[in-house]
Every structure is written in structure tokens, then in C-alpha cells.
Amino acid sequence: MIVQQLLSLKKKLKLRAMDLHTPYFDKNDVNYLEKSIRSTFVSTQAGYYIDKFRSKLADITGSKYVILLNSGSSGIYLGLRTLNVKEKDEVFLPTLNYIASANAVKSLNAIPHFIDSDIKNFGVDIKKLKSYLKKNFKFHKRKTINIKSGNVVSCLIVTHVFGMSCDMIELTKLCRNYNIKLIEDASEALGSKYNKKHLGTYGDIGILSFNGNKIITSGAGGAFMTNNYDMFKKADHLSQNAKKFHKWKYEYDDLGYNIKMPNLNAALGFAQIKRIKKYIINKKKLFNIYLEIFLNNKSIEVVKPDSKLSWNCWLVTILLKSNSIKIRDKIISQLNNYKIGARPVWQLNHKIRIYKNCPKMDLSNAEHLEKNIITLPSSAHFLMGDKKK
Ligand SMILES: Cc1ncc(COP(=O)(O)O)c(C=O)c1O
User: Fold this and answer.
1) 60, 168, 223, 355: least surrounded by Cβ within 10 Å?
2) Ligand 1: which of 73, 96, 161 to mutate, judged by most atoms within 8 Å of the beta carbon?
3) What's the half-sphere exposure (Cβ side, CA atoms, 13 Å) at 388?
């Protein structure tokens, strides 16, 4: 039934294919890219569009400091370095997650500690985390220590899956009480606000991605956001190879990276972000269409946002009731044969070979969600008159 319903939708929208999430471009994108090339400022050090894109992002998110980067993945790594997460520190992160966070933690020789997801909004299950903390950790000299391993939990990374969010007010409070730093992976959440505050601005640090499949794209790219001046200065320094400021000398004082966004990418990002409101309007319309077509389909549930969330509708998701990966994959495979790019959620991180021995809590919500999540094609341009895709 799901397959038939989506096929009729594809026909109704007169689309040859419905990819999961593809970008939309117009003349302005080309125009800005051309201007960037003509200016000769195409790289990372300087350029008109770097400042333009950065201040537009600061405007939209309300974040005091924004650093443009070459990807969201770099941003997560930079966030951990900025917070001084080090060898043997434990970092809480959901197992239902994009792989970048666990990889960033591991590459610092810190330890991913997998936590469970909220069954409704796919964020952190805060209630479960609270009782896990009470039972298995002690708070000593303002540090949260894992009783079993003796390691300090220095940071928690929450991912705003598909642009949605758990109760960020509660989560911020919990992290503050346990003196655990908070990074928000808001890669998928540009344009989403929880309780009128933009996602990625609740924690110490927030990360955005502008990869080709995100709500706006800069080709590849990301952003680091914080309201803390010292963190901003440190992150900015590390993201430019930790080069000391000097007009002409090359001197360095830390382990740094070359991960800033080039002006060329910022030109595209700036052209795109001017259309974000239009994208969200169209994506909301698409979400409502999905709600309507599945209204009487009792075998699934369309995932709806929390009432406090103003959602960017990045990816519309349905939950099957079958609890079977086999059934999930069969449906997804049929849809893809019809050029309807539905997808499952990521492989749970704790099941990946290199993370199998990492500490974890009971992960039954994530296990349940893994079996039942299907994400649906959600590009804004399906409703923007571009029938080529
Ligand atoms: C939740 C999440 N985190 C991190 C990333 C990494 O972003 P990027 O592809 O820009 O490195 C992505 C997307 O690709 C993502 O969806």
C-alpha cells in the first residue's frame, strides 16, 4: 500500500524521479559563483561572500560567533578540540546517529559512550539518561565519573535528527548539573527552532552542515557556532592550522587543521540561504501532502514534530509498525526500483565493528527505531516547478 501511495504521488507531482534530498539551483547561484571567481578570492583566507554568508547565518540562528568550515564533520571534530576533550574522556552520544560524531571522538582517543534515543523525536531520551547517570556515575569535584571505568564524562553530543529536537531546555539543564559540555550536531537542522530558539544555540557549541543533501548547500561546507568568545577564538585559531597572527611570518603554536570554507563555497551558500524561507514553505507543504496521503494507512505513522518545535521539515519520516528490518528493506528496495529514493536510518553506531566494545546503556528505543524508520523524498524543489529531477 505504501509503495502504491507514493507512486501515485510521484505521478501527481509529474516527477520522473523523487530522490531523497537534492539541491535546487537558480541563476543567482551561478551569478555569485562567477563573481567570486572574477574577484580572484576563491580560497579560505578572505572574500566578500565569507563575511556575507557568515553574518546571514548569525542573523538567522542568533548565534554570536559563526565560523565557516569545509564540512559539518570537521565542525564536530573542531568542537571536541575546542572543549579540550582528551584521551580516555568519555563522550555521550546517541547510537542512532550519523557516523561523524563517533569517528571524531575516537580520533582523539576519547571513548564514545552510546546512549538511547527518544522514541518520539529521535533526540536523546533524557529521562533514561537521567536514571542511567544516577545509577552508574558519581559526581566528584565537579566531574561526572563513570564508576565502572573511572573515566570522566566530559561532553555530550546531541544530534537533531532530520531537523527535529528533544527537549533542549531539559537537556541543557541536565548537562549543566553534571558539568558535561554540550555539542549540538544541528547539521540537519538549519531553520529549525525549539521553543523559539534556533537549534545549535542551546549548547556550548553548535554545528551545521551545507552538504549537497542539506536544506541549503554550499557544495560542501559546515559551520561552527558558539556564544562564548574564548571558544570562538580557540576554534578559529585551530581551524587555520593554529597559525599565529602575523603579517608575513609563518609560526604555529598548536595542532591545527586547514578546515575553513573557501569563498567560492560561501558564494553558493549565500545565494542559497536567501531562499531558505521559500524552501521551508515548500517542504512544509510536502509534509502536509504526505500526512494527507497516509491518513488512512494503518500500517505506518508519519512522524510529527513536537508542539514546541518550528521544524524545517528536512526529511519526512514514517515509522512502520512491522518491527522487521526485512520488511523495511523490502519496501525501500521496491520504492527505489520505482525511482523513489526512500532510505533507512543509519546503522546503529554501537553495531559498527570499531565501536562494538564501547560502553553503552540499554539501547532498546534505538533498536526499535532502526527497524521501523523510513525517510521519504523531501526536496523543496518537488513543489517549486522544477520537473526535471
Ligand atoms: C547528522 C549529521 N551530522 C553530521 C553530518 C556531517 O556533515 P558533512 O557531510 O558536512 O561533513 C551530517 C551530514 O552529512 C549529518 O547528517
Assistant:
1) 60
2) 73
3) 5
* Cβ of residue 185 lying under 6 Å from some atom of ligand 1: yes
Beta bridge partners of 155: 91, 181
Name residues whose C-beta falls within 8 Å of residue 356's C-beta, 6 or more positions apart in sequence.
Answer: 350
Q: Which helix (H) or strand (E) holds 225?
A: strand 222-226
Q: How far is the CA of 284 from the centre of ligand 1 (A)?
A: 22
Residues β-bridged to residue 91: 112, 155
174 close to 130: Cβ distance less than 8 angstroms: yes
211 lines ligand 1 (CB under 6 A): yes
Q: What is the dihedral of CA 107, 206, 123, 288, to 10 degrees?
A: -130
Where do we find the cell 553534571?
A: 178
Phi-psi region of 292 (alpha: psi -120 to 50; beta: other; left: phi over 0): alpha
Q: Which grid cell sits at 295? A: 491518513
Q: Looking at the chain, how many residues does it have?
A: 389
Amino acid 203 reads: G
Amino acid 97 reads N
The pTM assigned to this predicted structure is 0.97
pLDDT above 80: residue 22: yes
Find out whether 343 and 374 touch, Cβ atoms under 8 Å. yes
Please name every residue paired with 157 in a beta bridge, in sequence order, or none if there are none: 183
Strand blocks (E) in 309-361: 309-310, 316-320
Of 94, 164, 97, the closest CA to residue 126 belongs to 94
Per-residue pLDDT at 388: 46
Of residues 164, 81, 151, 77, the one with CA closest to residue 124: 164
DSSP β-bridge partners for residue 301 = 319
Closest CA to 255 of 155, 107, 50: 107
Residue 288's CB: how many other CB atoms inside 10 A? 12
217 lines ligand 1 (CB under 6 A): no
Query: Smallest Cα–Cα separation from 100: which of 71, 61, 134?
Result: 71
In tens, the pLDDT along 186-233 reads: 999 999 999 999 999 999 999 999 999 999 999 999 999 999 999 999
